[in-house]
Amino acid sequence: MHSLKETPEAEALVAFACGLADLAAPMSLDYFRTPLDVERKADLSPVTLADRAVEAAMRERIGATYPGHGIYGEEHGNANIDSAHVWVLDPIDGTKSFVTGMPTFGTLIAHLEDGVPTLGIISIPATAERWVGRAGAATQFGGAACRASGCTRLSDANVYTTSPDIFDEHGLRVFENVTAGAAMRRFGGDCYSYGLLASGHVDAVIEMSLQPYDFLALVPVIEGAGGVITDWEGRPLGLGSDGRVIAAATAELHAEILEIIART
Question: Which amino acids does the record list as binding Mg(2+) 2 (predicted)?
Answer without folding.
Answer: 90, 93
